[in-house]
Amino acid sequence: EDQVTQSPEALRLQEGESSSLNCSYTVSGLRGLFWYRQDPGKGPEFLFTLYSAGEEKEKERLKATLTKKESFLHITAPKPEDSATYLCAVPPYNTDKLIFGTGTRLQVFP
Amino acid sequence: DTEVTQTPKHLVMGMTNKKSLKCEQHMGHRAMYWYKQKAKKPPELMFVYSYEKLSINESVPSRFSPECPNSSLLNLHLHALQPEDSALYLCASSQGLQGGQPQHFGDGTRLSIL
Fold first, then answer.
1. A4, B46, B81, B92: which could join B34 in a potential S-S bond, CB 3.0 to 4.6 Å?
2. Contact status of A98 with chain B (Cβ, < 8 Å)
């Protein structure tokens, strides 16, 4: 069965304290793994697409990596404005659906 | 600023009212989606339109009625909703997940049912 699991559920960091978020997936025929950021009361904002194991994408303090079973979102020296819920999602084979993980709620304190 | 525009941003309605949510995208995407999101939960798929035709209905109650007038517009007609339907309703568009293209979301309509 296609499945996406994210951990931890919540993460509290001090400003500047680097960490990683995990997204484990089980899907046949991976056609992309997507990372999104969602602020309260807003829609998910697209961050990255990763297509194959070994691929890495970077944007400011964020770096996403992909293996055959999981993806990591590394946050380097986070700032309070990085506080948000981070969602990962994968499309099952041959559908237009997305399976979302339950998200990681990140809080960064000054 | 998001490239998917949703109106209204907030909507309060009684259980006997009829209202519509609107969504517009100008990215030339061929697929459009409606999602429902409850607090602290991920988005939950409701409907998918592909090339203006309904391709997926996730067993959504008939009090929700989608419409795709053209390739840029998506509506969600609401009638006789229940209090448990209160949620953030998100619209998204994509060139097609089967090609590995991501969905892009609007900022949603916050719906409250009295």
1. B46
2. yes
